[in-house]
Description:
heterodimer, A: 470 residues, 2 domains, 13-stranded mixed beta sheet, ten-stranded mixed beta sheet, 12 helices, globular, disordered N terminus, B: 250 residues, alpha/beta, Rossmann fold, 10 strands, 34% helix, binds adenosine-5'-triphosphate, binds magnesium ion
Amino acid sequence: MSARELTEYEEYSREVYDRKGTDAPKFQVKSGLTPEIISTISDEKRDPDWMRAFRLQSLEIYERTALPTWGYPLDGLDMANIVTYVRPDARQSHDWDTVPDEIKNTFEALGIPEAERTGLAGVGAQYDSEVVYHSIKQEVADLGVVYTDMDSALRGEYAEMVREHFMKLLPATEHKFLALHGAVWSGGSFVYVPDGVAVDIPLQSYFRFNAAGAGQFEHTLIILGKNASLHFIEGCSAPKYNVANLHAGCVELYVGEGSRLRYSTIENWSRNMYNLNSKRATVERGGTIEWVSGSFGSHTSFLYPMSILRGDDARCEYTGITFAGAGQELDTGTQVAHIGRNTSSRISAKSISKNGGKSTFRGGITVSENAEGSRISVSCDSLMLDSESRSDTVPVIDVRCDDTDIGYEAKIGRISEQSIYYLMSRGLSENDAKGMIVGGFAEPISKELPLEYAVEMNRLISLEITGGVS
Amino acid sequence: MTKPLLDVRNLHVNVGEKLILRGLNLTVNAGETHVIMGQNGSGKSTLAAAIMGSPMFDVSDGTVEFLGEDITRLSPDKRAKLGVFLSFQNPEEIPGVTVENFLRAAVGAVTGETPRLFKFQKELFAKMDELGLDRVYASRELNVGFSGGEKKKTEILQLLMLNPKLAILDEADSGLDVDAVRVVSDGINKYRNADNAMLIITHNQRLVDDIKVDYVHVLDDKHITLTGGAELISRIADGGFAAVHGDITE
Ligand SMILES: Nc1ncnc2c1ncn2[C@@H]1O[C@H](COP(=O)(O)OP(=O)(O)OP(=O)(O)O)[C@@H](O)[C@H]1O
Ligand SMILES: [Mg+2]
């Protein structure tokens, strides 16, 4: 059966995502940010000395850095109320059977163990601030591939490699929430793929947020040697609470010469989430980074994965979609720095807004003086489902090299009443007709996703259309 | 006596301030084929839209009944479920949705049960073969980049798959080559039986050459001014609407 059943809007509610784990955390820090809280986190995590110092230094940077002056307001976010570290009552395991039931059931409901059995090379599962499950298939490990939680990576065989790369692409000085991340980060995954190794099936890390009024700050570090390839999938979700939650993860990707990394994300946050995430890749000669990104939910999002095309002939592709519903302000986009010669970037962004949702796409592209022969193509396409919703595109293109080829296309449109009527005349309800049109609009993105995720994305779209009531 | 399939009474239709139909009456019984003719802009597509329930038109007076049920205020999907079908003069393009996925959802919506994929595909391909539509069109995006004729054939494909009680064909033949018109009229003949009915809007004689027509209506001055038998078609084809003007029955 075709996986891209755009037509099957089966009954589905948000219940799966909204399921609140009733487990009590084992430990959590007080809300707010103080050097004492940071030291407590270091104690809890048994940080190496350099990391202790790094956290405290990041806190200092945080304190002297101002909030962004652009983008949607962050007034509803008060760090004094955020608990930055919540340890679940579970030890990290390689066996789902030893994960406490309440936590395991959440991941079961999200389909993670099932996906692992059917098509993943490894899985990491984080619950609040700590990874509760991490495993890699033996065949893949035998190729020399390393896939572990970050705490293990900090202390294990690759400790030096981690230290050399940690927050070097995205330094704490870059913006206030990266400084925050540097101070309180916890969890996440580390991947290393050695030279010449192609990992044929994807690895997936899933970040599940359960505690109310807390923050999640996972760190993902992926390093590909030369001529290696990997598809990494990141999934995120959280139940809904009445208080603000904060997600400020950090993803650093190092793509070696001739290597290819695909980084796919399906984020599905509840509407109380401030999602202030940072992602960046650096690509060496002849390498490729492919971002596939579906951003759903959250109250406010700031998210702009950046690709630094350092080596000659490096390439990047960004395929992203956002869906902004009532009360949501999603500021997303991508940045590309063309540094090497003959580098190319292809950006295809889509946004959907509904019931007064606001969506802004920022495309930031720089071409340096020596990046001769760079090719850039940007296409943004926005679909508004009603007249209250807003959609903007903000291209910022800075080209310092004459020999550059740029194509830029932006379309903003309203969903066609005539199309809805056409589909309804064939028996589809208004919601199903809209869902089908929006699903079709999103199809160029969903076809880039692995099967189950494409199906999940279509479900999320129909959930957004029906407002979660089936 | 059994209820008529379609009973349009005193229909008044507006677009904004503009009155397009004023006091139109039309009755269609099961087993009948009706043809509607009329000059460009006379309101034929508007009538079709009012019967299908287009939100773009406003029924300011009168009623549309289907099998005795007043459907004047019913949404288009509910009408489709009752058995009303409209082959659009200008079918919409729906990017990213394949003909197959769309039709499977439509059949599921109309019958209340999504058909099994394999069985559905078999039926779909058989119908596509009959219409001379290459099977690759099943996985093409609905009407996107289709030629005028391909769009019309796809509408007829939908008709055959959904098997409605009343099929309204709004210029199903426009833009079709000679052979394609034959394919479409064959398709229509396969669909027609004693329990269903057709309302054909056309400017051409060719389409109805091979179809048994029971009634022909002329739409003029915002309502039906003349009703006759199949012979009206050739009279209009030969002498234009002026040739039948004196026959006005009102
Ligand atoms: N959305 C609309 N807004 C304004 N006027 C409209 C609209 N739709 C139809 N009309 C007008 O209503 C009248 C009837 O149009 P309709 O499409 O029903 O004609 P028709 O008989 O189907 O013509 P044709 O043979 O050219 O298809 C025309 O004058 C047309 O311009
Ligand atoms: Mg017309």
